[in-house]
Amino acid sequence: MRHGCKDQLAREFVCPKCHGHGAHVQEVSVGRAMVNLLPLPANSYLAVTCGLCGYTEFYHLAIAEKVVESASELADPRKLTQKTDP
Ligand SMILES: [Zn+2]
């Protein structure tokens, strides 16, 4: 589901800064130092970058995949915005 996950994030992204639609999604790995800053064990993330202004959100890859899959089942795209909360 990785490609579907990325496609869906890119498609449903609405930039909170410029309210633009459409984003570039890239899978990134972070090093040990960055992992220590985040309360998450794994170190693969999706960087979702606004194609208009460059604003970037990071999603934990494994969780994003689960959320996107469950959001697809429920057909409720609002679920996607909840995972950035602490
Ligand atoms: Zn933007």
* Number of distinct beta strands: 3
Number of domains: 1
Task: Report helical residue fraction.
Answer: 25-40%
Looking at the structure, what is the overall shape? globular
- End-to-end Cα distance: 25 Å
Mean pLDDT: 79
Q: Which class best fits the helix and strand makeup?
A: alpha+beta
In which order are the strands of the major sheet placed? Answer: 1-2-3
* Uncertain regions spanning at least 5 consecutive residues: none
* Rg: 13 Å
How large is the count of helical segments? 3
Note down, in words, how this protein is organized.
The protein is α+β, with helices and mostly antiparallel strands and 86 residues long. It has one domain (2-80). Helix content is 36%, strand content 22%. The protein contains three helices and three strands. A three-stranded antiparallel sheet has the order 1-2-3. The relative contact order is 0.21. Residues 15, 17-18, 20, 50, 52-53, 55 line the site of zinc ion (ZN).
